[in-house]
Design brief:
Elements lengths: L6 H21 L18 E10 L2 E10 L6 H14 L15 E8 L3 E2 L8 H4 L6 E6 L2 E5 L2 H5 L4 H11 L13 E5 L1 E5 L3
Antiparallel strand pairs: 1-2, 1-3, 3-8, 4-7, 5-6, 5-7
Length: about 200
């Protein structure tokens, strides 16, 4: 990964995500990018914002939405993804203001997705590394994405990761074995609030 961010820049992005959601829930307004943001944080990057709610010491997903492709300046993308993760993730009701104290914000800054080329689908097993790669699986109009941290958190091997990404796309688990299925990989720099 050539694009690097310092821990301080990551902390800024996580704080920006929290401040954005807090402002949106309390006033209905969306923050603008601060004027003093560094030019590095205005580079075009893909990003995901994940909200985890802490309950009895365990983290549970509360929302996760992002922009996988580098089409938007990073700080703007964090604002957009944070609002969407809190209010538009179809798997969950919108976050309520009284939940904010129990939510931990995580920002994943993505490298541009790279098509994984293989001679035969079973070669994906050696080209994808759990713990390093996130995946996007495309077949026809179906598309699914899983961040690099997901298979680590759920203790999946490479085959399970491919199958789960296919299911995230709304396809049968073995769809990654079909020749016209496209698999892209990307990496992420992950920043999370301290709990």
């Amino acid at each position: 990964m050539t694009f690097q961010l310092t821990p301080k820049e990551g902390e800024f992005l996580v704080n920006l995500a929290r401040q954005t959601v807090t402002e949106r829930l309390k006033s209905g307004r969306t923050l603008n990018v601060p004027e003093d943001v560094s030019s590095k944080l205005m580079e075009l990057c893909g990003v995901f914002v994940t909200l985890n709610i802490i309950s009895n010491g365990a983290k549970n997903l509360r929302g996760c939405i992002g922009l996988p492709y580098p089409t938007t300046p990073l700080a703007e993308a964090v604002i957009e993804a944070a609002v969407s993760a809190a209010t538009q993730d179809p798997r969950f009701p919108p976050v309520a203001t009284d939940e904010l104290d129990q939510i931990v914000f995580e920002v994943s800054v993505l490298t541009p997705p790279e098509l994984v080329t293989v001679e035969k689908p079973t070669d994906y097993m050696t080209k994808i590394k759990v713990g390093r790669d996130g995946l996007i699986l495309e077949k026809g109009y179906h598309k699914g994405l899983l961040l690099p941290q997901v298979p680590v958190e759920l203790n999946w091997n490479t085959e399970e990761f491919l199958c789960q990404t296919a299911m995230k796309a709304g396809l049968p688990p073995d769809s990654w074995l079909i020749k016209d299925t496209k698999i892209y990989r990307f990496q992420a720099i992950i920043f999370e609030e301290k709990t």
